Amino acid sequence: MKTSGKIAILGAGESGTGAAVLAKKQGFRVWLSDSGKIKEKYINVLSHFEIAFEEGRHTEKEILDSDEVVISPGIPLTSPLVQKIKSKLIPVISEIEFASRYTDARKICITGANGKTTTTLLIYHILKNAGLKVGLAGNVGESFAMQVATNNFDWYVLEISSFQLDSMFEFKADVAILTNITPDHLDRYNYKFENYIDSKFRIAQNQTNEDAFIYCLDDEVSAAEVNKRNLKAQVYTTTLQQGNTNANAYLIENKIHININNNPFTMTLEELALQGKHNVYNSMAASIGTKLLGVRKESIRQSLSAFENVPHRLEFVARIHGIDFINDSKATNVNSAWYALETIESPIIWIAGGMDKGNDYSKLEDLILKKVKAIICLGVDNTKLIETFASKVVSIYETQSADEAVLTAYSIGKKGDTVLLSPACASFDLFEDYEERGNLFKKAVRSL
Q1: Other C-beta atoms lying within 10 Å of the C-beta of residue 363
Q2: pLDDT band (50, 70, 90) for residue 387
Q3: Model pLDDT for residues 51-62, shown as the tens digit of each residue
Q4: What is the mean pLDDT of the chain?
Q5: What is the pLDDT of residues 114-152, one digit of tens each?
Q6: Angle, to 10 degrees, between the axis of helix 334-343 and the axis of helix 277-292?
Q7: The three-state (H, E, C) secondary structure of the chain, written as one string
Q8: Cβ contact 304:283 at 8 Å
C-alpha cells in the first residue's frame, strides 16, 4: 500500500480536512486547496497537524504536481480543474475511497435518493446499542478519513452520496443498502436519469457472494435495475405490499415481519419510534442489515422503539396557537417532499423552493390539490414552482428569508393547520446548506 508521494486535496470541509489528516499521518506530502474561505475550525485542525493549505484559489502548479487528488463531493467532476487533472492522468478519488485503504474494518454502506440518513442513523443506533465497536461517517457525522486516522473501529456505518460514489473504484461494501432511486441532482448528471441510476448502483461494485445487497421491491426503478444487473452479492428485499412473504421484510396488517435465515421476528407499526410509510421502509432496511451482522432480534426491536428522529427530517418544532410547525429542511428533492406531504393529515401551508435541480413537480400535484391550502416560496427564483402550482392552490407567496417565510405562514395559518418546511430543492441560493435553512426556520418559529 502506497504511503509516500504527494496527495493534493480539493475542498477543505469535513471531507477534505479529514482526508488531509489521514494522508499526513500515512506519511504523504499533503497540499490542501479550497477556492473559497475555509472555516476556522478546519484551519485549526490543519494548523495542528502542520498541513500546507491555501484558500480563495487553486494553485494549479501545486495540484498538478501530485501523485493523486482527493476530491470533496461538492466539486463536480466536470469542472475545468478536475478535467485538467484527469488529462494529466492523475487519479482523482473520493475521500471515502482513500480512507478505505487504511482500515480493515467492515463497512455497512447506505445510499439512495431519500431515507439514507435516517437508515444510516438507525443502523448505527442499533449496532452501538448491541455493544459493537462502530463508527458513523460519510455524509453524516465526522468524515470517514478522520475517523480512520484517529480511531480503531471494527465496523463503520457509512452514508454515501452519488457524488462520493462517482469517485470510488476499489472500495467494497460488506453490506450495501439502496433505499430508493428517484430523479435527483440531475444537474450533476447531464440531466440524464440513467446516469444518476448508474451512479447509485456503484454501491454494489466489487461486492462478492459473501456480501449483502438490500433494496426495496416497491421502488420500481431499483427493482427494474436489479433484474438487469449481474449483482454478485446475496440480495435481500423489503416491501410494504401486504402479505408479500417472498421479501425478507414485509407487512401483514399492522406488523412488519423480518425473516433472515428462517429466523423471523415481528414488530407492530405502533412500536416503531419513527412513524410514516417512508420510515417503515427505513426501519425494515436497518433491521435486515443489522440482523445479517448477528444482532439479536430483541436488541433490534428495542433500538427501533427508542430511536430519536433525525434533525431536519419531519422534525416537530412547536405548536403555536394551534398551528404545528414541522422542519423537513432535509427534503431536498421532490420524492422527499412527497413523503412529507403524504404523511401529514391536517391542512398544510407548504414552505418550498430553493435551488432547483431539474425537478419534476408533477408528482406532487395530487397531494397539493388534496392537502395544501397555501404555498410559501422560499428561494431566489421561484418561477418553476409558481408556474406549476398557481392553478392548484388559492394562495402563493414569495419570500427571501426563513423569518419572512415563517411570519407569512403564521399570518395566514389557523388552528389545526400545519406549516411544513419541505423544500424539494437544494438550499444553496439563500443558505449555506439544508442544516442552516432548518436551523433558521426553527429559530424564526421560536421567535413568534
Answers
A1: 15
A2: very high
A3: 999 999 999 999
A4: 94
A5: 889 899 999 999 999 999 999 999 988 889 999 999 999
A6: 110
A7: CCCCCEEEEECCCHHHHHHHHHHHHCCCEEEEEECCCCCHHHHHHHHHCCCEEEECCCCHHHHHCCCEEEECCCCCCCCHHHHHHHHCCCCEEEHHHHHHCCCCCEEEEEECCCCHHHHHHHHHHHHHHCCCCEEEEECCCECHHHHHHHCCCCEEEEECCHHHHCCCCCCCCCEEEECCCCCCCHHHCCCCHHHHHHHHHHHHCCCCCCCEEEEECCCHHHHHHHHHCCCCCEEEEEEEEECCCCCCEEEECCEEEECCCCCCEEEEHHHCCCCCHHHHHHHHHHHHHHHHCCCCHHHHHHHHHHCCCCCCCCEEEEEECCEEEEECCCCCCHHHHHHHHHHCCCCEEEEECCECCCCCHHHHHHHHHHHEEEEEEECCCCHHHHHHHCCCCCEEEEECCHHHHHHHHHHHCCCCCEEEECCCCECCCCCCCHHHHHHHHHHHHHCC
A8: yes
CA angle 399, 371, 382 (to 5 degrees): 25
* Residue among 52, 79, 49 at smallest CA distance from 65: 52
Residues 6+ apart with CB under 8 A from 12: 20, 32, 33, 34, 38, 39, 42, 46, 53, 55, 72
Task: Give the pLDDT confidence of 265-281 residue by residue, as tens digits.
Answer: 999 999 998 888 888 99
With cell 389545526, the residue in question is 416
Question: According to the model, what pLDDT value does residue 3 have?
Answer: 61
β-pairing verdict for 395-399 and 372-378 = parallel
Give 345-374 pLDDT, tens digit per residue. Answer: 899 999 999 998 788 898 899 999 999 999
Mean pLDDT, residues 434-444: 96
The model's confidence at residue 2, banded by pLDDT at 50, 70 and 90, is: low
Q: CA torsion sign, 335 to 329 to 310 to 213?
A: positive
Q: Which three cell numbers stand for residue 30?
A: 499533503
Let me know: does 203 contact 160? Beta carbons within 8 Å. Answer: yes
Of 72-86, 184-198, 201-215, least confident by mean pLDDT is: 184-198
pLDDT at 1 over 80: no
By residue count, the chain amounts to 448
What domains are defined for the chain?
6-90 (3.40.50.720), 100-306 (3.40.1190.10), 315-446 (3.90.190.20)
Q: What is the pLDDT of residue 434?
A: 94
Q: What's the chain's Rg over C-alpha atoms?
A: 22
* Euclidean distance between CA atoms 133 and 127, whole angstroms: 8
